[in-house]
Write a structure and sequence with these properties.
The complex is a heterodimer of chains A (276) and B (280). Chain A is of the alpha/beta class and 276 residues long. Chain A is built from eight helices and 14 strands. Chain B contains 13 helices and four strands. Classes of the chains: A alpha/beta (276), B alpha/beta (280).
Chain lengths: 276, 280
């Protein structure tokens, strides 16, 4: 498919209430289905809410697991692809957890991405609870090639660049970003799309958890950096938009960042980063 | 970073919107019947009263006026009532002098000359009244501490800072004054000299030994990891002043936290027992 319809499901997650969040995921997915969407995207940790602290050990599930199976059934029933975020319990351990984005389709689980860059500064304490992932994710689907990343990953252009080089046409960034960081993400989302001449869909939480006010503002940036769609700030919203992968050719021809890549500097980048 | 007054500028509509959403969200999640707050006639509690009313409606906000004989000020009472009327919240006056007198006469070692210890009884007594109303009416206590006071430890431990939420604790005093002006407070009230009202004629700036305009810039610099030397150089002020502020800020951390305990078991309250603050 070259043209698909995206649904940005900017929800307020109910903290530590998977039942309610699953109900909301179903409600938004049904609405998106009625509007002809092919893919619906929910925010980071949308299954559980963001601020769990020690309760994350109660909330985490393996993948596949009970909640992901419910969402797989929903995808099958509606024919939509669904991306959501959850704390993923390692199958081989009892308290090793990843902050994971999950992609399911009508035929089942397609893939997952474990957040590589875990913010542990300011109000964030993700490294205390999560193990970082170690690989980018790009999946071939019936809708096109979809890459996944999560929130703070956007500050590291190499994540999106590698995801793009693995073939992603649409990079999906799910997020739980508080309002004081809004201006950063408004820049980063456009920059990551433009520098990779790819589509980037950013879906943020709304609502307030523990004084953190998630700013919403979910958006889709096109391969030339244009904003294609934008959700409201701060509150729940469902935004539907079309993207056409054929637009990437036009953008790539006039902004040929991929053609102009200079792999020879990457070795030096690696060396300097290691010694920094 | 250039430490100039404009670093304390606010996007006022955005700030008010964020605070009112915070109050409303917390209130709705709590299942409480309303909010209770102490209404002193000062700018902090006036701003909290206004923001609370804007958040959930004045009919669900109760402002307690808690005068006592030594610090009684008809101007404070009038200012408190003016704000209550302007923002439509209910008020209740509780004269606390008899309660204070009973403390003064029943504490065997009570020293009337020690105005700090005596003043702290006043702050804690006000807290007891406020929490009584909150318990009785199933309400939340909305605190009015600002960031300047909180950083300096310029409050009575378990007294005036005791609250369930403190919606303006991330705003410096000079920023609270800007919010007050934005909300339509009369200029003389927005700029009214602050006092904890622990003893007659007590003024915060006199006691702290610094104007809030300068204090807030020093605190802003410390908040942003600036060294004392950088702050002194930029503000062109005495190094001893900055050191005094920094020392007071650091030594007051015990007032901002739960009591310290010794680590004995698997998870310890106040240390590594880390739960979300709001229940679910």
């Amino acid at each position: 498919m070259t043209r698909i319809k995206l649904a940005l499901a900017q929800i307020e997650a109910r903290r530590e209430n998977k039942k309610e969040n699953l109900r909301k995921i179903q409600e938004f997915t049904n609405k998106a289905q009625n509007q002809g969407a092919n893919l619906i995207i929910f925010p980071e940790l949308s299954l559980t809410g963001y601020v769990m602290r020690d309760q994350v050990y109660e909330m985490a599930e393996t993948l596949p697991g009970p909640s992901s199976r419910i969402i797989q059934d929903l995808a099958k029933e509606t024919g939509l692809h669904i991306i959501f975020g959850m704390p993923e319990l390692s199958e081989k351990a009892k308290a090793t957890i990843f902050n994971t984005a999950v992609l399911v389709g009508p035929k089942g689980l397609i893939g997952k991405y474990r957040k590589m860059y875990l913010p542990t500064h300011s109000v964030f304490e993700e490294k205390r609870y999560f193990r970082p992932g170690n690989q980018v994710a790009s999946f071939g689907t019936s809708l096109g090639n979809i890459g996944l990343c999560i929130c703070y990953d956007l500050f590291f252009p190499e994540v999106c660049r590698l995801t793009r080089l693995k073939g992603a046409q649409l990079i999906v960034a799910i997020s739980a970003s508080p309002a004081v960081r809004r201006s950063y993400f408004e820049i980063l989302t456009v920059a990551r799309a433009l520098e990779n001449t790819a589509f980037l869909a950013y879906v943020n939480l709304a609502g307030i958890e523990e004084g953190l006010q998630f700013w919403g503002g979910s958006r889709v940036a096109g391969p030339n950096g244009d904003l294609i769609a934008k959700a409201r700030y701060d509150v729940e919203d469902l935004v539907i938009c079309d993207i056409d992968f054929s637009d990437m050719k036009t953008a790539e021809a006039s902004i040929p960042t991929l053609k102009d890549l200079r792999p020879e500097i990457f070795a030096e980048l690696k060396r300097e980063a290691e010694q920094f | 970073m250039i430490l100039a007054p404009n670093v304390l500028d606010l996007d006022l509509p955005e700030t008010v919107s964020r605070i009112t959403r915070f109050i409303k969200g917390y209130f709705e999640n709590s299942g409480a019947n309303g909010l209770v707050l102490g209404l002193s006639g000062g700018v902090d509690s006036g701003v909290i009263a206004a923001l609370s009313s804007l958040s959930i409606g004045g009919n669900r906000v109760l402002g307690l006026l808690l005068p006592e004989s030594e610090t009684y000020s008809s101007k404070d009472i009038n200012d408190a009532k003016l704000i209550a009327e302007k923002f439509g919240l209910k008020t209740q006056v509780c004269e606390i002098t008899p309660t204070l007198e009973s403390f003064y006469t029943t504490i065997p070692v009570f020293d009337p000359e020690d105005r700090l210890c005596k003043g702290n009884i006043k702050a804690r007594t006000r807290m007891i009244y406020i929490y009584y109303y909150a318990n009785k009416l199933s309400r939340i206590v909305c605190g009015s501490s600002d960031k300047s006071e909180a950083m300096m430890g310029y409050f009575t431990k378990w007294g005036d800072a005791a609250a369930d939420i403190s919606p303006i604790m991330d705003l410096y005093k000079t920023q609270v004054r800007k919010v007050a002006a934005y909300l339509g407070f009369p200029p003389e009230l927005a700029e009214k000299p602050a006092t904890p009202a622990l003893w007659p004629n007590q003024l915060a700036e006199t006691e702290l030994g610094i104007k809030y305009e300068t204090l807030d810039l020093i605190l802003y610099g410390l908040e942003h990891f600036m060294s004392a030397e950088e702050i002194v150089s930029q503000l062109n002020i005495e190094a001893s002043l900055v050191e005094k502020v920094k020392s007071r800020w650091l030594s007051a951390e015990h007032k901002r936290r739960l009591p310290l305990t010794v680590k004995l078991e698997y998870r310890t309250i106040g240390a590594d027992f880390r739960l979300p603050r709001e229940g679910y």
